[in-house]
C-alpha cells in the first residue's frame, strides 16, 4: 500500500500533470497485475504498459511521484514494481 502521508496536499497544481498522461483513458488493468499473474503473461502485460509510458510527456513526473509515495504496485513512469524497489535502495521494503 502506498504511504499516503507522503502525498502532497490536494492542490490543483500538484496533480494537473496527470491530465497529460499517455495512460489517461487506458484500462488501468494494463498497469497493475492481477493476482497470480506470472511468467509470459506478466512480462507481456508489463511491456505493453511500458510502451505507453515510453511516449508519455509526464513520465518523469509520474515516476518521481511513485518513488516519493513508495508506490508498491503497478507500472509508474515506465518502471515496474521490482525496478522501483531497486531504485529506492535496500533499506526500503514494502510495508515500511
Key attributes of the depicted protein:
mainly alpha, about 0% strand, about 40% helix, about 100 residues, globular, 4 helices
Give the structure's gist in a few sentences.
The protein is an all-alpha fold.
Gross geometry: globular
Low-confidence segments: none
Approximate strand percentage: under 5%
Largest sheet composition: none
Q: What's the tally of helices?
A: 4
Task: Summarize the helix and strand pattern as letters.
Answer: HHHH
Could you tell me how far the N terminus lies from the C terminus, measured between alpha carbons in angstroms? Answer: 10 Å
Number of DSSP-assigned strands: 0
Roughly what is the average pLDDT, rounded to an integer? 87
Based on CA atoms alone, the radius of gyration comes out at 13 Å
| SS-derived structural category | mainly alpha
Give the proportion of residues in helices. Answer: 25-40%
Structure report:
This protein has a domain at 22-88. The protein is built from 4 helices and no strands. The chain has helices at 12-15, 39-54, 59-68, 81-88. 16% of the residues are buried. The model has no long low-confidence stretch (mean pLDDT 87).
Blueprint (SSEs and pairs):
Layout (H helix, E strand, L loop, with lengths): L11 H4 L23 H16 L4 H10 L12 H8 L8
Amino acid at each position: 500500500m502506498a504511504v499516503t502521508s507522503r502525498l502532497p496536499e490536494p492542490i490543483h497544481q500538484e496533480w494537473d500533470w496527470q491530465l497529460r498522461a499517455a495512460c489517461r483513458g487506458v484500462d488501468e488493468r494494463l498497469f497493475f497485475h492481477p493476482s497470480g499473474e506470472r511468467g509470459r503473461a506478466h512480462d507481456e502485460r508489463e511491456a505493453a504498459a511500458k510502451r505507453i509510458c515510453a511516449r508519455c510527456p509526464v513520465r518523469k513526473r509520474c515516476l518521481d511521484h511513485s518513488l516519493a509515495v513508495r508506490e508498491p504496485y503497478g507500472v509508474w513512469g515506465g518502471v515496474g514494481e521490482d525496478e522501483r524497489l531497486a531504485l529506492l535502495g535496500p533499506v526500503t521494503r514494502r510495508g515500511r
